[in-house]
Design goal:
The chain is mostly helical. It has one domain. The protein contains 15 helices and four strands. The strands form two sheets. The chain has a two-stranded antiparallel ribbon with strand order 1-4.
């Protein structure tokens, strides 16, 4: 006999849906401006992203209608599929701008490294929720989670896409700290991390990656080459002043001084056109959405739900922080998009699926509702 769970209606997460629509709406307005074609209007890029956003809403609704425990169990299947796709990109796809990141599906280019981040959260949630260590995790307890993050990290770093690979590590670290470590384990991992930074700088980073870090430390030293992006981004943000130059009136973006204005540097276009006031409004909506996700994690009814909601919130939070700091010159340019805001179908669909998981956890954090046949 079929039973309808009334929680789907009684406890629907209208707050998160409102934030998604607000942030998504501002993102589409910004994309229209940054890719606007004079005398023609909206570009094909805008219509593609609008289609991705509508598809993302559908995916979000499908995911929130499912029990999140079942979705987490599917994580290992998705994780395996993503690893195969990552290996496929390295072996069979053509390099674009020196990187092998996309699989041409005809109707759109799939970037497997984006859903890899969500798949990693799903498998870590399954792993940690089944691992109960009352006094905190020991080093040996982290071997399996460490291997789960190491596989996609290596494959993504070889594309090369160091920014996305580091996001996987940061999400893993955030979730591991959320689960509580022993002090001895934390000390060992901190020391190891510092050693890895030294080894990575000395032997693993490519020349262009070192150059990006050196440019971050002193962008004026190479203003016409690697420092150009940072300088133009800072000019765009600063020139917006209090209330901005107005919609479609930004000079840095429309005169094409600002590179990657619809992808990595999308927020610089928003800051120039809407100013400090518009930026504060956007960031308030954006980080309220993240804070709401963390609140969902704190009130989840079980360990799996808490890990999923926290992991998805951290996925969006850390990408946003890195992108915004990059735009304002506080971090080197690493190619991390602003979730829900930068152009990109794979990124948008992945982040909206993550938000759907958060909504699913919240809707099922309440006592069981009465059912009817």
């Amino acid at each position: 006999m079929f039973h309808f769970d009334r929680r789907l209606l009684q406890h629907f997460d209208w707050v998160m849906l409102l934030m998604v629509l607000l942030v998504g709406g501002m993102a589409l307005i910004n994309l229209y401006s940054s890719t606007h074609i004079p005398d023609h209007g909206a570009s094909s890029v805008f219509f593609k992203q609008l289609l991705f956003f509508c598809t993302g809403l559908l995916i979000m609704m499908v995911i929130l209608s499912q029990e999140y425990q079942k979705v987490a169990k599917f994580g290992y299947v998705l994780y395996g599929i993503i690893l195969l796709l990552l290996m496929y990109t390295l072996m069979f796809t053509k390099a674009i701008a020196g990187s092998q990141r996309w699989i041409d599906l005809g109707f759109f280019n799939l970037q497997p490294s984006e859903p890899a981040k969500l798949a990693l959260i799903l498998v870590l949630a399954s792993c940690y929720s089944n691992l109960d260590v009352p006094n905190g995790y020991r080093l040996r307890d982290l071997i399996r989670p460490g291997l789960l993050v190491a596989c996609p990290f290596v494959l993504i770093a070889k594309q090369p896409d160091l920014g996305t690979a580091l996001i996987c590590v940061i999400v893993f670290v955030s979730l591991t700290l959320f689960m509580r470590l022993r002090w001895s384990t934390l000390a060992i991992l901190s020391t190891t991390a510092m050693g890895c930074v030294f080894v990575g700088w000395k032997f693993l980073l490519k020349e262009y990656q070192r150059k990006r870090i050196e440019t971050f430390l002193n962008p004026e030293a190479d203003i016409m080459n690697h420092g150009y992006q940072i300088m133009q981004s800072k000019i765009a943000v600063g020139s917006g002043k209090i209330f901005g130059k107005g919609f479609l009136e930004g000079t840095q973006g429309h005169l094409q001084f600002l590179p990657e204005r619809h992808t990595d540097f999308a927020f610089a276009v928003w800051a120039e056109e809407w100013g400090f006031a518009g930026s504060v409004f956007f960031l308030s909506c954006y980080f309220f959405m993240v804070a709401w996700g963390i609140n969902v994690a704190m009130s989840a009814k079980d360990k799996c739900g808490a890990i999923l909601a926290f992991g998805c919130s951290m996925l969006i939070f850390w990408q946003a922080v890195i992108n915004l700091c990059m735009i304002m010159g506080f971090l080197p340019v690493v190619g991390v998009p602003l979730p829900m805001f930068s152009y990109g179908g794979s990124s948008l669909l992945t982040n909206m699926a993550a938000l759907g998981l958060i909504m699913s956890v919240r809707m099922r954090s309440f006592p069981a509702a009465a059912t009817s046949p």
